[in-house]
Specification:
Helix content: 55-70%
Number of strands: 0
Shape: rod-shaped
Distance between the termini: 197 Å
Radius of gyration: 45 Å
Structural class: mainly alpha
Number of helices: 8
Length: 252
């Protein structure tokens, strides 16, 4: 009896399915945004967006940032600059309305001449009292125009000193920063402190220069008006009462 051999068993592993699984559903379609209407695009808006990618800071923010760099001293000078500008504009309008150098009917010099003439007639041809009446009217005209000039002069005098004070304080802060840095001294610390300190001096001069010019111009106008008023009073009194000749000199 012959033995029948057992069939051989195939032990070779089956090949693995290495294809990636399709995770996208078969019925998924791409999103269609629709056609773009060229007429709806504003070319000016596109040019503006390309030219200015970042919106610049407003002027007010720039001014506030500039004042913050200088500290309290620069803020004080900023307030003084606003006061100076307001005073100069107000006084300019006031002087323009007063017409100090006018010589027409309602001009101040004409009013002074009229007051002198009336006082001469009312006091019985007294030249001294008539001249005093004219000077009192001139003083009343000048008094409201002098208001604010003392403040303008004080700003012109104090602004450079305030700016110099800010410079000194800034230099002190800069050298304190250098001392704190110790051996690792960074020259940028000193340079930054110096330019911030000098900023207050420049601001003080910027405030003082227009204040000085305005104060000098207004004071000059008042001085010229005072001289014109004195001349008007003298001419009026001389016209009303001519000086009598000295008989003793004539006899000699």
């Amino acid at each position: 009896m012959t033995d029948t051999p057992a069939p051989a068993i195939d032990t070779t592993p089956a090949p693995a399915n290495t294809a990636p699984a399709n995770t996208m559903p078969a019925n998924t379609a791409p999103v269609d945004a629709g056609p773009v209407d060229p007429a709806a695009i504003d070319p000016a808006a596109l040019e503006a967006a390309a030219a200015t990618p970042d919106a610049p800071a407003s002027t007010l923010d720039a001014v506030i940032g500039f004042l913050d760099v200088g500290g309290p001293v620069l803020w004080l000078l900023g307030i003084l600059s606003v006061v100076t500008l307001a005073l100069i504009l107000a006084k300019f309008l006031q002087f323009s309305t007063a017409r100090l150098n006018g010589r027409k009917g309602r001009a101040p010099l004409a009013a002074i001449a009229t007051a002198t003439t009336e006082a001469y007639s009312a006091t019985g041809a007294d030249r001294a009292l008539a001249a005093d009446a004219g000077r009192r009217l001139a003083r009343r005209i000048m008094q409201p125009l002098e208001g604010g000039l003392a403040t303008l002069g004080m700003i012109a005098m104090l602004s450079p000193l305030i700016g110099l004070l800010g410079t000194v304080l800034g230099m002190i802060d800069a050298f304190q920063a250098l001392e704190t840095a110790g051996s690792t001294v960074d020259p940028s610390l000193l340079s930054a402190g110096i330019w911030v300190a000098l900023l207050t001096t420049a601001a003080g001069l910027v405030v003082a220069i227009p204040a000085t010019l305005g104060h000098g111009w207004f004071e000059g106008r008042l001085s010229r008006f005072a001289d014109d008023a004195e001349c008007t009073i003298g001419d009026t009194v001389a016209h009303l009462a001519p000086a009598k000749p000295d008989l003793r000199l004539a006899a000699e």
